Amino acid sequence: ACLLAAARTGAADAVRRCLRAGADAAHRDVAAGSARTPLHLACARGHRADADAAAAAIVPVLAAAGADIDAEDAHGETALHLAVRTPALKASMHSCLLRARAALGV
Length: 106
What we know:
The structure is a single chain. By secondary structure, this protein is mainly alpha-helical. Helices cover 50% and strands 0% of the residues. It has helices spanning 2-9, 12-20, 38-43, 51-64, 79-85, 91-99. Helix 1 (2-9) runs antiparallel to helix 2 (12-20) and helix 2 (12-20) packs parallel to helix 4 (51-64).
């Protein structure tokens, strides 16, 4: 829950702290029924002004911690799907996901 909340709010330092404390980078938000991972939540913050910078800081941290970059949520969407649809996430964020080896054909 700590990691999901940190990713949802775009708090990169809190994401790092949760991971150091043993949080699972692949944890899913099953309570909400979305089955979204912290990566999904970080990339779905498009309504916030700091969305691009926050997601760009969180994605590499989660990827290094073993997050499944191509994990699909309950609707079959990956973090890259969410990032492409999110206006506040710039090309730099898309590049960040692609550098983490997000699959284009998922």
